[in-house]
């Protein structure tokens, strides 16, 4: 398997680049960041952490897979205790396992097993994302994508907001090829033909359909073929081949755990190999503005970053109303969302 980035110079080649997936994954404007977490957690203990020794781990900064899992910044429960964001959005796709959300606005939720949380940080919010291990008798497998989507300058100070896209409400596009083989696409943002995603957060770049923003997770049968629908000239489009053994994109071999940046307005046929494959597609019109990032703050100028840091030091973006920075909800709680206005959705 080659490890270097391969760029294509021909204007007639629908593939612009093939690149290995690192940590984080390479993204294109309007996206800022993408990570794929897959962990094979053991049975949970009474605190909803791993029922296993944590000796030898760099707790608080544990990003190395050991015995099949990572604790990330968690010291008891794996995950990401309270931390701030400003100037962009997070889209969290919880494919397997559960995420406990709490934030500085008093909003909270538990979601997973196909649910998606879409959070606009806007002018500033703190939140925690913990991964409670509810099953005490057997393993707790976990898989999650987190995607950072930029906000344009005129939206960077929007009011914080979070929305839940429950898996029951995320439409699935299905394509059957000439060999009767299936490609299934969870349409989290954007649309494919008449299959339209749920509405995104209201201040999102995705809220304007002319930006042609798309977030799709794709599952292909062994040997299935699917032609990507066309988008407009100038739209950035990148495919991430994160599980499988063989894939051809526009006639070129794309090795496992690589991405392919492709022309959105060109005909691109995806031909799967002899095993089931899984892909992520990120697409959108570029915002095409300066990006200045300092950790969890993404603005347009260094002055704005300094202002964000001063504001967080002064206000903590509303403080932290929860009893712990790694707050988790009661074990018996089902999937739910409690929003900042006090409204509650219970999914069980």
From TrEMBL:
<keyword id="KW-0479">Metal-binding</keyword>
<dbReference type="Pfam" id="PF02678">
    <property type="entry name" value="Pirin"/>
</dbReference>
<dbReference type="InterPro" id="IPR008778">
    <property type="entry name" value="Pirin_C_dom"/>
</dbReference>
<feature type="domain" description="Pirin N-terminal">
    <location>
        <begin position="70"/>
        <end position="149"/>
    </location>
</feature>
<dbReference type="GO" id="GO:0046872">
    <property type="term" value="F:metal ion binding"/>
</dbReference>
<dbReference type="InterPro" id="IPR014710">
    <property type="entry name" value="RmlC-like_jellyroll"/>
</dbReference>
<feature type="binding site">
    <location>
        <position position="129"/>
    </location>
    <ligand>
        <name>Fe cation</name>
    </ligand>
</feature>
<feature type="binding site">
    <location>
        <position position="85"/>
    </location>
    <ligand>
        <name>Fe cation</name>
    </ligand>
</feature>
<feature type="domain" description="Pirin C-terminal">
    <location>
        <begin position="216"/>
        <end position="318"/>
    </location>
</feature>
<dbReference type="InterPro" id="IPR011051">
    <property type="entry name" value="RmlC_Cupin_sf"/>
</dbReference>
<protein>
    <recommendedName>
        <fullName>Pirin</fullName>
    </recommendedName>
</protein>
<dbReference type="InterPro" id="IPR012093">
    <property type="entry name" value="Pirin"/>
</dbReference>
<dbReference type="InterPro" id="IPR003829">
    <property type="entry name" value="Pirin_N_dom"/>
</dbReference>
<keyword id="KW-0408">Iron</keyword>
<feature type="binding site">
    <location>
        <position position="83"/>
    </location>
    <ligand>
        <name>Fe cation</name>
    </ligand>
</feature>
<dbReference type="Pfam" id="PF05726">
    <property type="entry name" value="Pirin_C"/>
</dbReference>
<feature type="binding site">
    <location>
        <position position="127"/>
    </location>
    <ligand>
        <name>Fe cation</name>
    </ligand>
</feature>
<comment type="similarity">
    <text>Belongs to the pirin family.</text>
</comment>
